[in-house]
């Protein structure tokens, strides 16, 4: 069974030799419809219409059409992202506690697209992020808000993308380290904020921040790899805390945290591979976050980003998923008509999905040389598999702080 999963026999796709057709890959409710199967059928109907526009052959297409023209609406995405720097719609008031995240989603997306920020844009981001930093360490979701590990991760990543010494200089590493030490739990887990919940997101955010800023020494992560390893579930995935349901986002956070801490071998890689290969949807090509859930563009990174970390741990060199199918889903189904990317057809664009669809597209484009679904003009800058900022930006901030130990 393991060999079959890793060789992708289960997702061979349609062929012209009498094998399966695209229709055979659609979900069947087996005569017992439910809310879940109805929703799945509806999204497959939407995507079937899209597939019919560019696949060839019977039943909507037996092969993926070779794409030579530009499919990525790069200029539209840049325009959408830059508009968000100047003004956000009233709907974004709900994200008042996510301002560093908005900074990160926008700056990273622009960087992936090959668009550099202007000096004025850099100054505006730096000013906001400086005001989000707490007096006792860490960054909050907005000026004057409670410092939070997730907001701090987003702020540090945004600063890395800006990539100037002026941006680096706003980080108070002394208070940041003291604040982080206060969030470390006795069992090795990490609280997200003072008196907050502890889960695998905290372990990843803390590890990413500490490695990027050269703060990971002095036993700061003692017990953390062991705790993260206990989050692996009976079916091979990784959950928020030990004993709960596996989820694609937690799979990335858990494995990336272990890799950052030099402890990726603590996970059962074969079991994780068995779980993660089943998250790519056979008909849609994109990923779901959990079994029996719908495809969602954000998992292009949260699940797709697991593969570059997992592949070196496996004895098999088989490609664990179909990058071309994922790229088809992102480029054909997730691009909004006026720029920006979305969860799935029928949903609205937003900066979160724009960031993680593009991050997943970049990861898939640079992960495998065996299969690609993008033309050369659609290739993005490569993103770092652990930090999810572009490679030069990750290298630059790490080198800067390594030369300036506390």
Number of strands: 4
Give the spatial strand order of the biggest sheet: 1-2
pLDDT averaged over residues:
90
The tally of helices reads 17
Q: Which regions are unreliable across 5 or more consecutive residues at pLDDT < 50?
A: 1-18, 57-65
CA-atom Rg in angstroms? 21 Å
Share of residues in strands: under 5%
Order of SSEs: HHEEHHHHHHHHHHHHHEEHH
Structural class: mainly alpha
Described by strand count, sense and barrel closure, the largest sheet is: 2 strands, antiparallel
Distance between the termini: 50 Å
Give the proportion of residues in helices: 40-55%
Gross geometry: globular
Describe the protein's topology:
Blueprint: H1 2-6, H2 35-54, E1 55-56, E2 63-64, H3 74-86, H4 99-112, H5 119-132, H6 149-162, H7 165-168, H8 173-183, H9 200-212, H10 224-229, H11 248-260, H12 269-276, H13 299-302, H14 306-310, H15 323-333, E3 341-342, E4 349-350, H16 351-367, H17 391-402
Antiparallel strand pairs: 1-2, 3-4
Helix pairs in contact: 3-4, 4-6, 4-16, 5-6, 6-9, 9-11, 15-16
Description:
The chain is globular. The strands form two sheets. The protein has a two-stranded antiparallel sheet. It is mainly alpha-helical. The protein contains 17 helices and four strands.
Key words describing this protein structure:
two-stranded antiparallel ribbon, 406 residues, mainly alpha, disordered N terminus, single chain
In brief, what are we looking at here?
The chain is mainly alpha-helical. The chain has helices spanning 2-6, 35-54, 74-86, 99-112, 119-132, 149-162, 165-168, 173-183, 200-212, 224-229, 248-260, 269-276, 299-302, 306-310, 323-333, 351-367, 391-402; strands spanning 55-56, 63-64, 341-342, 349-350. Helix 6 (149-162) packs parallel to helix 9 (200-212).
